[in-house]
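Hi V.,

You were right to ask for the full record rather than a summary. Here it is.
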Amino acid sequence: MLSASRIQASLPQLVDRATLDAGLDAIAENHAGDSAARHAAVVKLLKDAITKGHSVAESLLMEDGSGSACAERLSHLMDEVILSLLRFVETHIYPRSNPSAAEKLAIGAVGGYGRGTLAPGSDIDLLFLLPYKQTAWGESVVEAMLYVMWDLGLKVGHATRSVDESIRLSKADMTIRTSILEVRPLAGETALIDDLVQRFDKEVVQGTAVEFVAAKLAERDERHRRGAGSRYVVEPNIKEGKGGLRDLHTLFWIAKYVYRVREIDELVAAGLFTRPELNLFKKAEDFLWAVRCHLHFLTGRAEERLSFDVQRQVAQRLSYTEHPGLQDVERFMKHYFLIAKDVGDLTAIVCAALEARHQKGSAGLDRFLKPFRRRRSTILRETPDFIIENGRLGVKDNEVFKRDPVNLIRFFHVADKRGLAMHPDAMRLITRSLSLIDASLREDKEANRLFLEILTSRKSAEVVLRRMNEAGVLGRFIPDFGKVVAMMQFNMYHHYTVDEHLIRSIGILAEMDAGQLGDEHPLSDELLPEVTNKRALYVALFLHDVAKGRPEDHSIAGAKIARRLCPRLGLTPAETDTVAWLIEQHLTMSITAQSRDLSDRKTIEDFAKVVQSLERLKMLLVLTVADIKAVGPGVWNGWKGQLLRTLYWETEIALAGGHSAMKRSQRVAQAQAELKEHLADWPAGEVEAYFGRHYPPYWLKVDLERRVEHARFIRETEQEGRKLATRFTTDAFRGVTEITVLAPDHPRVLSSIAGACAAAGANIMDAAIHTTTDGMALDTIYVNRAFEDDGDEERRAQRIASFIEAALTGEMKLVEAVKQKSDRARRSRAFTVEPQVLLTNSWSDRYSVIEVSGLDRPGLLFDLTAAISRLNLNIASAHVATFGERAVDVFYVTDLTGEKIMNASRQAAVQRHIRSVFAKNDAAPKGKA
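Predicted structure:
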């Protein structure tokens, strides 16, 4: 951070007020008789000065990197503009020849501007202060200034009040009270502002600290609730988000109000901060201001959300570079999240200091400060080093961790066991004692036993682990975990930092273990009690992403870490093997379920060979569910749950020796017999004729419920004399809408359906494709559900179905329709995904499988299926998955003779042609067809 003298030395470089004043005087002289021309010239002169000043400020920010200095320079720039503007208005537009006592006006800066800091796009908050009441002169001056500022494009927040009005309103309105708390004399009769400040201290602040603190903390909690509720979301709001600038401002408001200081440096003498903590406050503020100013300069507006499309540019402006395993943007965001954690630590320090300062309080503060008044402390009998104070776990004295470093783990164990909140003073002492966590403590059997009990607790493991993490204990005790603390993965799939994701996943597993998620995850709820070694499952979930950010594949590297760490935690060799296997395979079940044909026996057989035992299958299912659900809101849905359940059930049968016990022909005959029972109202000859319309794979792939629906759907369509028909059903539990299409078969049927869905804005998740022996296509697609209400979703499904019918009859020009949708969609240019096309004959006995991955966009599935059709390939099934910005689409195909693609040159040509589809990514928006 720059010194005050250095900042002041750089301020005049932004604007020269003498030059501004001279320019405004010349405008007044040149346009004396033309007020409109005069106004336009004033606006142009001041706008040019601001634009030039911003340019200089941006250059200085790039040079010295100080965010606080940049914010102060921009504030000074606006000071000079307002001073010149007020002088111009009072001298040339509304001069006072013989002013009365009421014809006085002071301008005060309030809000962030009152603190003497502005970002390039910040609001300009002003208080026009009058001695008594509004006069015609005062009203005219304020109006003239505001018209100019509005025409400059400034967002001006303003109020015009007398001193008495300001005092009266601040007593009733906490927002006004906060703005006056930070008022800074700017221009005019500044003695009025001095009078306001003195009266405000005496008549408003005195005796109301408890009320103000409660209001500000409640306001902060509500702001966090409206946001993501976590400081570790990967696209944070740097102003309003948890751990952002507004949290720092809230701390300073509280400190100023309670301790009656004007500058942050005074808080050391007041006893609120130590010197290192004050430096931490300034460091956090300077970093956040640098990020905010860069963000505003980059976007050209008051953008507060650090979104993916600007993160890399901000990182590069701040001189972050790439390291092995971490991109430049990931290193920058890791620093951001560490700063956000520091802001949280400072919040805890302030609350603890307030609690110590205020020995008396009201029950209304219990929610925020727990409360101020002290009660008698209770020493724990089983652990005399700890006490319970005001319902929270504290320490007996400041030497408890030095006497026994195991207490650094035991403290959290007791908090979990007893369900106690943790006293801020104890957490502060823990943070100062982190050096005690050394190799000796890490190898201590008791410390590891206690930690394992915390990790596997069904009470409050997530909360306790998060507190351990924020205190720095978790990363020191498990150094491999420490490497992923605050680590962000630069993609649109993960919503949280790696450490937060791991901790959330443990919380989800604990909820499942306690039987609290049975409605959402019925199979996991049924299986988890049958898992014989839950310790291994908890440890595997805690460590499954711990090797992220390393050059090596994180699943393999994570398994190696587990083999080294598990014995230390007290796990047996068998448990260690299980943990390592679960980590190494933790993505396998998800990938198989979402991107493989689960009706293909080869898929199940290959997966069963990986799993090998029913116990591992159960554990892997539960781990996969918790992992996906902890990625972020909206990532888990019922469709993924259904896919995982299907994979589990099919694999369970295979592991038990099923399927092979019955021949293929017998299974077809059994499926037909089951259907015949449900078609008892059909003539026998019609039933037999219907059986002949489907090839054997249909009977093996489609479940009974859908076989019945298909039979009645086809019969009704033919009785109505139609060749093309659609039907749909909604499924709230799975979160999908199922649309079935019956149409004359041709190679572009699926491509046309995909194009129609893209034009309708529907996201295809899966497709089941069947061809009848008489040349009809019977295709079922599953699209993401968009509405909670069934009526709304059915109307949407009807619209999608009408688009599909229009596409298949040629009434809709698909290329143009898809392009229009793509042109309207917002695209993030932040990501690059190297397209990959894999063609393999080893994943299925009947089909060649094409796996395509690359940057997602609207119309991608339409383009891919069209390309496959041009290659004269038949698509037997398609499986569509999206992981943030990355699409992974898998197609089971044959050539026109129904055979696999075996020729090497033909395979290369297919891969080359499909890969060319991604060239369109350079000109198309992001999204999923």
